[in-house]
Amino acid sequence: MENKSFDEMAKDKTGTIYHDEMRDGIRFIVLRGPAALCAYAGIPLVHPLAGFHYEDLAVDAHGGLTFSNAGDGKLRPKGFWWYGWDYGHCDDCAFYYLEYPELQSLANGKKWTVKEVVDDSWEVLHDMAKLKKLAEQLGIVRRIKRIFKCYLGIAIRTIKSLYQHFKHKEVGNADK
Q: Please, what's the b/e burial string for 1-40 (b: 16 or more CB within 10 A of its CB; e: otherwise)?
């Protein structure tokens, strides 16, 4: 985990990843966004929780979830559906406040560090892990239903075929 100050991170390139770990099958990254630090929870693209709009998830992140999309390989690694939130809200300091002298008076907000973002994100990651498990359980139920429907269809077709077969034999025996 990077141990840079907010002012030092303001000089870094947008997209610089400061923290990257796996927790409960969720990839968690903290990176420098265009205005502030951003945190992302990555769900594997093949997982049933991947693909939802961020407004569809009831997760209590700092300022709320503000992003969801597949990794582009530039800012966010490919192979994951990323749900993100940022630390550039009211009462938070933004990087650009430091760049422009006319905005210096606005630079009084909280200057988040990577450690503080990681510490602040544990509850979000816990909620995401619960949603991930729930999505897996619902996915299993859906698969069981599809399998049941498939086998039920096979059973119905078999019964119809047997019915037709024996009905035909009965008609043939009646002719004798």
A: eeebebeebbeeeeeeebbeeeeeebbbbbbbbebbbbbb
